[in-house]
User: Fold MOT8 protein from Anseranas semipalmata.
Amino acid sequence: QVASFVLFGIMCMMVPQCRGFEGVIVICLFLGLCDGFFTTIMAPIAFELVGPMQASQAIGYLMGLMAVPMTAGTPIAGYFNDYFGNYHAAFYFAGVPPIIGGLVLSVVPLVHQRMLQKQRLDSGKDKMLAPEAVVNGELLPGCPASEAHM
Assistant:
């Protein structure tokens, strides 16, 4: 998803560089692929982050937040066209948020790993250093501990 965000931003910035129809087709192909990658991965990420009970609500919030720039983008691009005389600045500015978002998303797993390590260290201080004894029956899946001690 991070790669699709960054590539999406780069492709947006490359639209003004196209000199022929073939270039626009290639860029639109990559834009569509990146959008498809993001859309398909959105649901599994929502399930992982908030769980299955709140996943639909999280996806709804995400779609609602995505609607704001989608709605405001066209008038802003028109303003840039009036001010600069072309749409180049609009495409360059449209590429910046996905690139920044991709870079921020690339840092999230590192922060999450550090938080998990800190929790493990904090919880390890309260326990004894010796590992707990495990009964052989508890190692088998589906075998409750009460049956294992019989």
Remarks:
- Helices lie at 2-14, 21-50, 55-84, 88-126, 136-139, 145-148.
- The radius of gyration is 24 Å.
- The CA atoms of residues 45 and 51 lie 9 Å apart.
